Amino acid sequence: MIRRIFHIDLDAFFVAVERDLDPSLNGKPVAVGGEPGGRGVVACASYEARAYGLKAGMPLAQAQRLCPHAIFLVGRFSRYQEASERFMAILAEYTPFLEPLSVDEAFLDMSGFETIHGPLDKAARRMKDQIRREIRVTASVGIASSKVVAKVASELCKPDGLLEVKTGEEASFLATLPVGKLPGVGTKAEQKLGSFNISTVGQLAATSPVVLRRVFGAWGDLLHLWSNGQDHSPVSAPTPAKSISRETTFASDTLDAELLRGTLRYLGERVGMALRKEGKLARVVVLKLRYADFQTISRHHTLKQPRDGDEAIFETGDQLLTSALKERRDRVRLIGIGVSSLIPSSNQLSLFDKSGFKGDSLIRAIDSIRDKHGFTSIQRGLTLALGNHFPEEHGHFILKTSSLSR
Ligand code: DCP
Ligand code: CA
Q: Which residue of 65, 182, 268, 350 has the fewest C-beta atoms within 10 A of its own C-beta?
């Protein structure tokens, strides 16, 4: 079957989210990545800022020299994460054959989906419209018979573009482009190819694969195929998480039982929600502690029955904490909790487990409220006191160590 692959990528993603939160940034040169004068680099530059040469990875000091009137923003990662999740959820409405590549980019295999969505270019337009309506970010879409060509196409039509490469026209589409447009061909490879007088993809396509293999090894074989518009790699769903954990460092080392247990409860609830989102049950609960002297220990406990509830995770973690502190009672620098040995949860299990049924629907209700209004919109006694220890923003506690581990 002739494949139809979409590559979709949000335009100037971090800046787009910031503009949604503060429309006065529209039309201005904006860079996300830290205060000017700081030592960081630009993570995302608006297209207006790019006109001055600003781009991702550039040191802030240089960025400020190039465009002194640009607006520099520190960035709010939890907001980008939230937008990213909503973006992926929209894509999943179109096809289950979805491969996220990064926070703002994914491949979709839409082969044969005309019967569901009608002409695919129209489906792509609807997808872009829906993203603009619901996340208020523009996206660019490339459509082609392979991942590589679709990705090149989406980049070429940015921003807010849509570019379809018809089947059979892949090689001619690529031929005039600089070799650097191919995925994975960076400055170094570009220079190397330049030394062989190869600067366009067409010239690369016409180069003997034997030569490419001698120069680039196995990567040369791929360059040969790709430059000729051939790429058979499948769109594959990411491998599911093997474990899920959350941890944080305290502002100062502590032995305060209320703080330790409250934090454990909060982190455990975050783990539980992620676990339920993945539709998994956990067999093993893991506790991690780092003491003030950096000694790091972990303790685990295997549950009698695989579970996905906050109570089971926290109570097990709490017991592990009590016994760990019995062995060594010292101030703690970092605490973390995780689950592993994950298995798919099935409705059947909860049907048989009548006792857990009520709690099950309650926790799902809590999950959906937290999804809408932020994690701290519903809190139990233990975590309420955490407001005195961690700053809170948009319904999340701001933890010291980012808690994005899977
Ligand atoms: N990012 C980052 N550091 C980098 C590159 C990217 O933190 N060196 C982040 C910020 C970007 C996001 O990842 O907004 C997506 O990266 P992209 O490469 O897709 O770039 P943009 O979305 O910013 O711009 P474009 O419109 O070119 O896709
Ligand atoms: Ca992007």
A: 65
Statement to judge: residues 99 and 248 lie in one domain = no
Phi–psi pair at 230, nearest 5 degrees: -110, 130
Domain that holds residue 280: 243-404
Q: What total number of domains does the chain contain?
A: 3
Atom 2 of ligand 1, residue of closest alpha carbon:
43
CATH (domain of 74): 3.30.70.270
Q: Which atom of ligand 1 is found nearest the CA of 105? A: 19
302-347 pLDDT, tens digit per residue, is: 999 999 999 999 999 999 999 999 999 999 999 999 999 998 886 4
Kindly report the three-state secondary structure assignment for every residue of 74-103: CCCHHHHHHHHHHHHHHHHCCCCCEEEEEC
Q: What is the pLDDT of residue 78?
A: 87
pLDDT tens per residue across span 298-311? 999 999 999 999 99
Residue 238 included in any domain: no
How far apart (Å, rounded) are the C-alpha atoms in residues 387 and 118? 51
- In sequence order, the 6+-apart residues with CB closer than 8 A to the CB of 35 are 60, 72, 74
Answer whether 104 contacts ligand 1 (Cβ < 6 A): yes
371 lies in the same domain as 282:
yes
